[in-house]
Design goal:
3-stranded antiparallel beta sheet, Outer Surface Protein A, domain 3, single chain, 4-stranded antiparallel beta sheet, elongated, 13 strands, alpha+beta
Length: 191
Amino acid sequence: MSRIGKAPIPLPAGVTVEIGDHQVTVKGPRGELSRQLPGAIEVALEDDTIVLRRPSDIREHRSLHGLTRSLVANMVTGVTEGYLRVLELYGVGFRIQHQGQRLSMQLGFSHPVIFDLPEGISAQVETFVPTGDNNYLSCRLALSGIDKELLGQTAASIRASKKPEPYKGKGFRYQGEHIRRKAGKAAQALA
C-alpha cells in the first residue's frame, strides 16, 4: 500500500467537495478548483475526509494512487490557505514594475521583458535601494495563488527569463536558493 496514497485527506471547516465522474471540485474560502483525475483511482468522501483507493497493486495503479492523493490534498490546501512563491532578482539596474496582471522587467537587455500573469495568480513587488555593501539584490517578487501547479509553472517561467549566472549570480532565483559560483579569469590567473 502506498504510504502517501492510503492517508486520508481531512477537510477543514468551510470546504466542500463534489466528486463526479473522475472529476473532483473543491470549494473553499479562497476560491474553487477542479481537476480531472485518472480513471483507475476511486475517490470517496467519508466522515469529513477524502479517501482514495486503487483497484489493484500493479505498478501503474500504485504510482497513480500517491499522485492522485497529493493532487487532491494540494487542492484542499490551496482553497483554504493558498500558496506563496518568492523570487529574488539580483543585478545592478535590474527592476520590476507591476501594472495590473502584467510585469514589466528590466533585466539588462536592450528592451523590457513583458510577462502577463495568468488568471488566479497575483504578484507583489518589493524594491530595494542599493547600499554600499550591496549584494546586488534589487527586487523581490512574491507570487501567490490557490493552484500550486499553476503557481510553480508561473514562477519557473519568470525565472527562465533571466536565470542566475554563475559568476556574479545576477538574475532571478528562488528565495533560499543557493547558486554555485565560479571563479572568474582574474581569480584563476592568480592561482
